[in-house]
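ok so heres the complex, two chains, lmk if somethin looks off
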Amino acid sequence: MGSSVIADIARYNNDVVDSLGLRFLELSPNFIGLSREEIMAERDARIEETNLRSAFFILVSLESDFRIDYEYRCERMIEDHLDRPFRLIYQSRRGNTTVGNRARLKEDIFKTWEVHSSEPIPQLIRDLRDAFDFRNWVAHGRYRMPKPQGKYDFDDVYSLAENVLKEFKLCRPD
Amino acid sequence: MDIREFDDFVKRQQEAAAGIASVDWDGERKEWLGHLDKIYKKVESLLHKYVSAGQIQIGYRRVELNEENIGPYTAKQMVVKIGPKSVVLEPIGTLLVGAKGRVDIIGPAGKAQLLLVDGKASGSASLIHVTVGVDWKLPSAPAKSKREIEWEWKIVTRPPERRFIKITQQSLFQLIMEVANG
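and the predicted structre for the whole thing:
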């Protein structure tokens, strides 16, 4: 499911990037008075913005995969190396009005995967933490805070998501 | 992909390169610099009253421009000083879509554009003509205008309208006040 979602996002991204390429090849009243370099710079900025948005949606989809997996494991009582720590979080969150009844992505879900799994999972979790700092920046801080360090273009985020979906056996209801 | 498609692509690029080589780029540069001098003279004449009263100072700096096919060259940049505020008329170049030249007017509060365009054009949209073909037929190429274009410097309003406004004392003064936060 997750891999088909990210493949769809990638196909959509490719379509929009290809369309932008064509859009900036054709004459438009908006381009009057601009040099070729300025038009190309505008096109590149649009493509970068498109890539950024698509990278954001890849991460949104990954977050949803992790949350569905966590809830599925807790509700169906799946028994494996994650069942005890996840269930402890699940019980402590239930009815907790102070921190809310949802598990926190980084502190609860990612942390559990990191501590209770062998490589390459912990390394991928570290990469995911950084990528989610980027995701949070896009969602909440891009117009008032500097971009977080690290390379987060669409290709990087896509390949991280692909590796995550391959290495993590994320559960989801049929 | 069909090899013939690639052959056609290479052929088209060679034809385009031959077309580029046949242009008198040195002549294009000289013509553009001539038009640049004309707009500076026009601005000087519209501000003459203030300059001669010592209320406005006008100066020039040399700037390096570099355009595809023309290469690097030097042009003049005009600096209009009104008290503590400076407004710069920055030449951008001549190889532009739909225009023969552009000067950006940059002040502490913003930026505006002067474009050297067909004197008969009322806005950027009037410079683009779209023809469509029906029943999968290609549209016919637009007829070449027999009219000689008379290039004229005009103020361009902000997007999305991008209308062309004649440069008069009133329109120039308003523009300077906008970019200088007057």
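quick notes: The interface with chain B takes residues 27-37, 39 of chain A (CB under 8 Å). thats all i got rn
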